[in-house]
């Protein structure tokens, strides 16, 4: 592992422990050249996944797109970054546990909406309004009524 500070290849692991519910390993490292410490994470390499978009185009799965959508939905809401990361991790685990090489984007969107509904109602409605492409106020109100009825 290269040192991010000086670029040296001479680094050593000084501590290893499980991270993210045992789905990765957190390693503390030390550079023998500049003596600085840094942290790395090691994850199992997963099956390459392709997302089938609404227009039937295909593109490689990109976790950052889910993170960006959830972050936008949770903007100025009482949701911590740890809760957002946990939500994205849960969605990602469910996607990869399906063991499909291709997954429709609407399946991912529904998973995200289901998780957001349990996490924060306003964030859920924000995400749903973009994801479901609400055309007018009535569609928006119908979704709000569903939440209020539960």
Write structural notes for this entry.
This protein has helices spanning 63-73, 81-97, 105-119, 121-131, 137-149; strands spanning 11-19, 24-31, 37-43, 50-52, 58-60, 102-104. The protein is an alpha+beta fold. It folds into two domains: 11-43; 50-149. A hairpin with a 5-residue loop joins strand 2 (24-31) and strand 3 (37-43). The longest helix is centred in the middle third of the chain and has 17 residues, at 81-97. The protein starts with 10 loop residues before the first strand and ends with a helix.
Structure described in brief:
With 150 residues, the protein is of the alpha+beta class.
Distance between the termini: 51 Å
Instruction: Give me the side-by-side strand order of the main sheet.
Output: 1-2-3
Compute the gyration radius: what is it? 20 Å
Percent range for helical residues?
40-55%
Shape: elongated
Number of strands: 6
- Biggest sheet statistics: 3 strands, antiparallel
Order of helices and strands: EEEEEHHEHHH
Structural class: alpha+beta
Given as residue ranges, the uncertain stretches (5+ residues, pLDDT < 50) are none
How many structural domains?
A: 2
